Amino acid sequence: MADVKAEIKPEIKLDPADSPTKLAEIDEFEDDTDLIFPTPEMQGQGAWLVKVSRDMWKAWNDIYQSQPDDAEVEVGRLRVYHAKPGDDPNSQKVELLLNDGLEQQKALPSVYNLEMKENSYQNTVVFSEKDLDRHRAKQIGHTRNLTAGKPSGIPGKSDRYGPRKPGSYRTAIPKQTILAPPIINEAVAKPAEDKTSLDFFKRQYDAAMSQGRKATILPYVDKGFHPGAASAGFTFGSITSRPGKGFKKKEPKEKNVRMPEDKLLDALQQCFRQYPYWSMSALRGHLRQPDVWIKEVLDKIAVLVRSGDFTGNYKLNDNTARLLNISDLELKEEAAPIKSEVESDQGTGDEMGDDDEDLGDFEDVKMEGGA
Fold first, then answer.
1. What is the CA radius of gyration of the chain?
2. C-alpha triplet 284, 287, 288: angle, nearest 5°
3. Helix axis angle, 280-287 to 261-274, nearest 10°
């Protein structure tokens, strides 16, 4: 059997077997700049998480923006008072003294009392992020500062389809995450009552009051002279409103006071002793009680007629009519008349008869006509 010889195609490149990868070329200990942990010394000291006011936050943000990167700025100092034995650790007195040398903090109160919330680690992690130095955000639509030889004639996606919508995808820039030391103490900063805090609140109050509209009183205008009185067509009637138009006071609606249920039951029984059928309007005008209260008590002794000549009127149920002996009264089959509110307020006219009885003190005068 003839020997078979393997042929290697010339386009395939073979790795030399006698040139292994050198260990020096492997970067096993490459620096990782994406995540920075605090030093052991910083971890032992711990950090404070303090809730500050909006004005202090703005001042500290201005200080941060005005300083170079990685610059340490002393914004203040903590004054911690020794706690007495047996006291609550959260009630320990701590003050924050701001650095008056910083221009951004001169308008703020100089002393803040820290109200302690936690004095031990509570799984609270604080970190910051920033873009890596070797990755910069590209300016969209700017091609004037491109390096020589880089093509710039092809428009970008934003130039072709408009600006990017909020929340849509954009190229991610690698971030550098820096972890802060463990949060050992959590507190809330409140201004101490001193001269600097009172001056600060006074400036805030004056600024808030100056933003609203103000009325300017001119000293050279006669306050007793009505505006527009100097015109030729001025009359006293032009400054007075016409009566009954726009200023008519609405008459208050009289509210009926509810009478006790037992008295209302007696009044309803007296009504049905006069007429066998009563409508809600007639009962309202006769009893002067709210409709809801009348109906609530009326349902206990009467029923609503659903058909016939007296549809919509109430009549006594059989049990109540039997107890009151309504059948012995021999009432006519008719409904009670509806009394209007005017008649109920002013009377029915029977009061005039009482006045006629008092005319006996007058003498009768005989009138004779002259010839």
1. 49
2. 65
3. 120
Residue 86, burial from CB neighbour count under 10 angstroms (0-12, 13-18, 19+): exposed
Between strands 76-80 and 94-98, the pairing is: antiparallel
Cβ neighbours, 10 Å, residue 99: 15
- Looking at the DSSP bridge assignments, the partners of residue 35 are 177
Residue spans of the domains in the chain: they are 29-135+173-208, 261-347
- d(CA 267, CA 142) in angstroms, rounded, equals 93
Q: Considering the entire predicted model, what is its pTM?
A: 0.42
CA distance 38 to 17: 46
Q: What is the pLDDT of residue 192?
A: 92
Q: Return the bridge partners of 51, or none.
A: 188
Closest CA to 259 of 302, 299, 290, 300: 290
| AA identity, residue 196 | T
Question: Domain 261-347 has what CATH class?
Answer: mainly alpha
Specify the range with the lowest mean pLDDT, choosing from 31-35, 221-225, 262-266, 284-288: 221-225
Dist CA 46 CA 39 (whole Å): 11
Tokens of 46: 């711990």
Q: Average pLDDT, whole number, for the chain? A: 74
The mean pLDDT of 253-277, rounded to a whole number, is 83
Residue 189 has pLDDT above 90, yes or no: yes
Could you tell me if 81 and 87 are in contact, meaning their C-beta atoms sit under 8 angstroms apart? no
Q: How far apart are the first and last CA of the chain?
A: 183
Other C-beta atoms lying within 10 Å of the C-beta of residue 185 = 22
CB 49 within 8 A of CB 124: yes
Name the residue among 281, 352, 273, 271 with its Cα closest to residue 312.
281
- Report the pLDDT value the prediction gives residue 130, as an integer from 0 to 100: 80
